Predict the 3D structure of the following.
Amino acid sequence: MRPKMQPKMQTKAFGAALTASALFLTPSGLFAQESSQEGGAYTAGLSGPIDVMKGRPYSPYANRAFPTDVFFGDTHVHTALSPDAGGAGTTLGPRDAYRYARGDQVTTSTGQPNKVRVPYDFFMITDHSDAMGVIQDIMMGTPEILADPDGKKYHEDFNAGGQVAGDAMWRLIEQFGQGELPEALNYQPGLPAFDAVWYDIVDAAEEFNDPGKFTTFIAFEWTSLEKGNNLHRNVILRDGGERAKQVIAYTTQPPMGSNNPRDLWKWMQNYEDTTGGDVLAIPHNGNLSNGMMFAMQDDFDGGAPYDPGYAEQRQKWERLYEATQMKGDGEAHPFLSPDDAFADFETWDYGNLDATAAKTEEMLPGEYARSGLLRGMVLEEELGTNPFKFGMVGAGDNHVAVPSPDNDNFFGKYATYEPSAHRIIEDGELHVALANEDLGLTLYSYEYITSGLTAVWAQENTRGALFDAMQRREVYATTGTRIRVRFFGGWDYAEDDALRRDLALVGYTKGVPMGSDMPPAPEGAEAPSFLVYALRDSAGANLDRVQVVKGWIDAEGTPQEKVYDVAWSDDRTPAEDGTVPPVGSTVDLSIPSWTNTIGAAELGTVWTDPDFDPALKAFYYARVIEIPTPRWTAYDAVKFDLELPEEVPMTNQQRAYTSPIWYTPAE
């Protein structure tokens, strides 16, 4: 049984706003220094709390050898080089995307000027590795492509543009996902057209990488689809072009590729052995995997039990999970978390990626980040290693090369859905993005959401520093907002620690940051405490509340979860079960806009787990919720003078999810 909610223990809400510049003075953590290849970055290892006050100079800002800033970026962007982007009308390439990301105004594939509100600190082009180069040949109509019936049909349909091209894009995705891609379209490493695209991706990243100002990473998407079930990973290299060009991006299609994650990990190991470099993989969209993303068995081995090697390899290579992006939010699901009032946020649960299979309730635990974290602890009991021990990041998966983290600047998932009066509703009917009439599955274009962001606490804005922070999971996800969040766990935080302006220094003195394991409990400690602090986006909405999400495995081996409201705005009184009532709304849909007359600019507290059992494994992460603001559909309604049906959501509450902190009982 799910435990009843208990009254919230300790709460502290800040009253005054803290400026962004002041936050920059707050350190992120203390780490052992090790010079990286880039000269100014640090790798990190943290085994427990360190007395950072001992031997420190009078100046609190001197001699800091730990991260002092948070950097926002996108780890998942597609350009015209991806077949499903270029075929659907995207004309912008990697260099256009980099110019946009660093703050330049660009002209989109539909001829519209676009500029991001705040330049990205770092950026990754993750075009699909499978069939690299094929879309350019399809569009041009090379003799080899036109000689194949499918190739000729794609050439005609993609060049027709509009909905015809959009339908062809989904047809290509289905053909790819079902393993039915014609040989003529299955471009492989070693083919000149394939290799040329990979080398150009590398060159573009090198051209735009500007350490300290704007960081680019060499990356690609490994697009595993098992009968249409999404198991995609973005593969990120820490290194520059000299190492990246020693290999060719790995694919999923035979004869040279594989859609089994174990084979991807072998490629990654070979990359490191061959080049001396570093690489990581970030899975995404478990919500479209039909239960396979966090499965309890090896579905690539006939459903056999996992072996310890699987758990060890997955934890080694996949230390992050993309918990939110344009194809739905993946933190939690209301069926799995019925007591969580905020679990149903931009939920996609209609089926798998290409709508060839419907969703069942039994699949859901294998699809969402929170249930994945719980399943990881269950598997750890059997395998000795937790295969799903990941930090959380957010991204775009945008296929028009210009991600859209802000609701008032939404340029859609595909070129078909760049701004127009017809992208939501056409001829009085909601626009259908994807449908399977036989299964009764329908995805509407209004269901796409804004791009998420990855926030990284690092020493500096360089490949080495950012990558190392991702490896140690000192990262968090946002749904597009630039909320700044600190989250620490320890055993002796005091209530007044949340009031300090050197909060992070205190956090690292007494505990560990997001993404870490709790240090052993000192003698006499009764329960862990957590220091959490959040500051709103400087141009965004006020904060509604801060929550701590706890997951644990009870004495019977059953996964459990509970969400605690720990800090909130506006002097609201919690109910008997400890939950805080809704914050209200100031949204005016006629503009559309909102006012920050409710909510708080900053919230923070020290919270101690009132239900702690030292014998049970647990994880904790913070979730920060903004007050309601207009959704992109509301901006479209005003800009294009639309009357939209009630089923189209017009507001939502943007949020951030930190990486967890894990507790393991002492043996």
